[in-house]
Structures are given as C-alpha cells and as structure tokens.
C-alpha cells in the first residue's frame, strides 16, 4: 500500500471566501476512504481540484509513482491518467440500453479494453462490466427506465469499465432505497480492493457500512481522520457536524 494521491497545503478562494484552506490529504492504493463534513465544508471543491476542473491558489496535488503534478494537467489528461469521477446525479445516456452505455464506456480512450476492442467480443466485455454492478439481467433495458439506484450503478459500472486507479464518488446513496444503498456499499467495497475509491457521503449508516478510514472536512480543511468511531467521538466533529440534522437527510 502506498500513497496514490497526495494533496499538500492546498488553498482555494472564491472571491475572498476560502473554500479550501491549507488542506492536506492523501489516499493510498488500494484504499476506500469516506469524506464527511457539513454543507459548504469544501467536499465538492476538493473533487473539483483533484479532477482539474478548478486550480488551487496554493499547494500541490501529486499523483502516482511519478508524483505527477495534477495542477498542471488538463481535465482530460487527469482523466486519462486514471482518475474517474462520479457526480451526485446519474449521467447516463437514457435512450441507450445498459449494454450500449457500457460498450461506449469500454471504447473510451482510458479503457484497457479499447486496445483489444476488435479482438474481444464487445458484448461479452459489456456483460462482464454489467455483472460488476448487478445489471447483467438488464443489458437490453433502456437506461431511461432504470430506477434511480440502477442508473447510479450503471454509471459506476461505466467508470469501472475504464479501470480508474482513483475513483471519486459524490454522494452515491442520495435518493436510493435502503436495499440499493446496501448493494452500493458492496460495490464500492469490492471496487476499492484493487484501486483507491474516495466517497463523499452524508448518510452515516452508509459510511458505517463502508467500514473504512474517514476524513472529516470542515471549513476547507481536514478536521479529523480515522475510523468512523474515532472521528464520531471527537468533540470538534460533534460540534460542527454530528449535532446537525443534515447528517442523515442530505
Ligand atoms: N464556483 C464557486 N464560486 C463561489 N463560491 C463557491 C464556488 N464553488 C464553491 N463555492 C463555495 O465554497 C464553499 C464550499 O462548497 P462545496 O460545494 O465544496 O461544499 P460541500 O462540502 O461539497 O457542501 P455540500 O455538502 O453542501 O455539497 C461553499 O461555501 C460554496 O458556496
């Protein structure tokens, strides 16, 4: 296990407001990490910085064994380097079937299957990708008629098909049934056996089931880090986060 992503002393202001304030954060490969924190803590901004959507004012973001500086790479270069991002809302092609969505993901430049594409049965590869997210029986179903949870799984499957080294997932459990949440936990735990997976989540039951190291963000910096029990017992975390109702319904 070694650090795959190393964020050091990063700050980012919008006008005069410091959304990220001297943040240091690292994640290993493989590792499953949860990020929790109150609304406005900087969780989404953190993902925007790692994926190159925005640039830090100060600090460095290093990635991989060559310690590549992500702040000097474009969003497309960062994606090609193996960083995948799942936004909160599902973004699948609704008119296309599950199989077609996965086939498109498999053909993306990052996908290792792209090279082999003509030699392997594309449908078999798509079926395998579907099986990773429990959608093998839905290959011919238009994505538009899937449940919200299934659309989320399809998008996770599309990202996994590209074999990211680091997968960033923003609030996957929002709007899911409890059975879907449970299944999603299993998927993320499985995916994190061979890569780094960082999950932003407000649902504490979901985080508990992830059974992983947790980082608490507050006012743009890491307030506490450790097991869920450890951070939940921290008076500062109780004060800024756990005492608030948003922990269960965001
Ligand atoms: N492009 C922007 N311009 C101005 N302010 C911004 C911008 N992006 C984020 N912010 C501000 O930065 C702060 C951190 O926002 P961010 O969305 O990262 O928080 P969050 O922890 O993801 O919150 P939530 O849990 O509500 O999604 C907020 O106060 C937000 O209003």
UniProtKB/TrEMBL annotation:
<dbReference type="InterPro" id="IPR027417">
    <property type="entry name" value="P-loop_NTPase"/>
</dbReference>
<dbReference type="Pfam" id="PF00005">
    <property type="entry name" value="ABC_tran"/>
</dbReference>
<dbReference type="InterPro" id="IPR051120">
    <property type="entry name" value="ABC_AA/LPS_Transport"/>
</dbReference>
<dbReference type="GO" id="GO:0016887">
    <property type="term" value="F:ATP hydrolysis activity"/>
</dbReference>
<keyword id="KW-0813">Transport</keyword>
<dbReference type="Pfam" id="PF12399">
    <property type="entry name" value="BCA_ABC_TP_C"/>
</dbReference>
<dbReference type="GO" id="GO:0005886">
    <property type="term" value="C:plasma membrane"/>
</dbReference>
<dbReference type="InterPro" id="IPR003593">
    <property type="entry name" value="AAA+_ATPase"/>
</dbReference>
<feature type="domain" description="ABC transporter">
    <location>
        <begin position="5"/>
        <end position="244"/>
    </location>
</feature>
<dbReference type="InterPro" id="IPR032823">
    <property type="entry name" value="BCA_ABC_TP_C"/>
</dbReference>
<dbReference type="InterPro" id="IPR017781">
    <property type="entry name" value="ABC_transptr_urea_ATP-bd_UrtD"/>
</dbReference>
<protein>
    <submittedName>
        <fullName>Urea transport system ATP-binding protein</fullName>
    </submittedName>
</protein>
<dbReference type="GO" id="GO:0005524">
    <property type="term" value="F:ATP binding"/>
</dbReference>
<keyword id="KW-0547">Nucleotide-binding</keyword>
<keyword id="KW-0067">ATP-binding</keyword>
<dbReference type="InterPro" id="IPR003439">
    <property type="entry name" value="ABC_transporter-like_ATP-bd"/>
</dbReference>
